[in-house]
Structures are given as structure tokens and as C-alpha cells.
Amino acid sequence: MAVGIFDSGLGGLTVYDAVARDMPEVPFVYLGDNAHTPYGVRDADDIFQLTCAGVERLWAEGCDLVVLACNTASAVALKRMQETWVPKDKRVLGVFVPLIEALTERQWGDNSPPREVAVKHVALFATPATVASRAFQRELAFRAIGVDVEAQPCGGVVDAIEEGDEILAEALVKSHVEALKRRMPHPQAAMLGCTHYPLMQRVFQEALGPAVKVYSQADLVAPSLRDYLTRRPEFLGPGTASKLLTTGDPARVSSKATQFLRRQIRFEAA
Ligand code: DGL
Prior knowledge:
By secondary structure, the chain is α/β, with parallel strands linked by helices. It has helices at about 15-20, 45-60, 70-75, 80-85, 95-105, 130-135, 135-140, 155-160, 165-185, 200-210, 215-230, 250-260; strands at about 1-5, 30, 65-70, 90-95, 115, 120-125, 145, 150-155, 190, 215, 245, 270.
């Protein structure tokens, strides 16, 4: 009864960690496409092809349901995958919607018309491809009115994390927050719209200040997934083993993952 979790690299581990803790009875198979990371600077066709290949690999592990723990893939490729590619007996879900539902204080699957929400000024930090897709603004417009969104493409942060360069990642986060604040001096909330960024959450929070509420998918996806699996248990696939797979070098990826999550992580070759 396994579930697949996919990301371009290490970032989805923040989601994997949270869902595995929340549902210890479910085997999760993680696939990081570290050989092709980062996705955030690639074009839409490229992201679509790579994401489909990763999802197929997880289907082969007995995961009928795959969560794209990658905003770039969710924002750029998911709709096209669902409309043209995913067979009826499989499901692929993204991590974008739970984030927006948390901001707009909606329940999973609430399809009522958009309404006023408490938060009016929102900062979005994401990869260049996610920002360019405008998927966040589109999904938000279905649920809320009168929200001003300022999006900051955070070039370089994913590369620095994948390289294990925490000092560079920290410096880049600070400069991206400064750039955002020049355009929106007082955001009320900040959305970390890339699953790599929770690894730098402390730095985002410090740079934004204590008054800004920082939303991170690591905390938000687990309850949504649990709710989904309660309603659709048939999508718990036939796989039985939890494992972490990478298209990159398993020894190198294991060591970076261990450094960032601060506990022993062991990847196998995909
Ligand atoms: N962690 C991913 C995301 O949430 C992908 C980042 C990348 O590969 O550029 O967007």
C-alpha cells in the first residue's frame, strides 16, 4: 500500500519527512531526480517530460498515487499530466493547493465562490519557473479576493541547497527577502512555494521578521494527504517497502540529505 513522493532533488524530503511521521503505517517511496535538478530554470516541456519519467518510475514501485512534492512540477506540468497522460487507475497530486487552502482558511475540496480573507499582502518565494507560471495567483483567485501577491523568483537557492552550500543558500535567501521587501515593505504572510525552502525556513523567518507568518508545505501537506487517503483508500498502491531513490549518485545525495535533515538518510540508485 505504498505512496510515491517525487521531487527534482532534495527539497521534497521536507514533505516526505512530514508525511512519513504523520502516517507511519504507510510505506512511502521517495524519488529525487538529482541528475536533472534544478527544474526551476527549465522550460515547460522539459519539466513535463522529466516529471512524467519520475512518476512512471514510482508507479513501477507499486505506488498508484504519486505526490509531486515539487512546486515547479506542480505549477508547470501537473495540469497537463492530469489532462493528457495519467491513466484512470492512477493519481498524481500536487503540493500547491494545500498551501493556498491554508492561506485562505478553506477546507480541502471547498468549491464555494472566492471570498475576502484576513491576509491582504502576501509574499511568494518560489523558483523562476513557478513564479513565471503564475499558478499561485491563478489558484488563489479561485478562492480569495482582494489579496495582493508579490512574487520573488529565488534564483540560485535550490542549486546551493543541492550542492550542500548552506552559507551561500543563506546569503541568497537574505538577498531575495530584501529584494521582495523593496517592492512590498510589509507583507503579512510569506509562502515558501518551493519544497527546498523549508530547509532554510529559519533564515526566511529571521529576514522577514517575527510579524510575518511563514507558511511551509512541510507542515501542510500531511493532513491533506491523510484526508485524501481516508476518502480514496483504493489509491494506496500494492508496493510494500519504504525507500529513497535518486537518479543521481546515491552516496553523494545521501550525504547532502543527511547534512540538511540532520539525521542519517540513505538513498539507493533509481
Ligand atoms: N523543490 C522544487 C520546488 O518545490 C524544485 C526546485 C527546482 O528543482 O528548481 O519547486
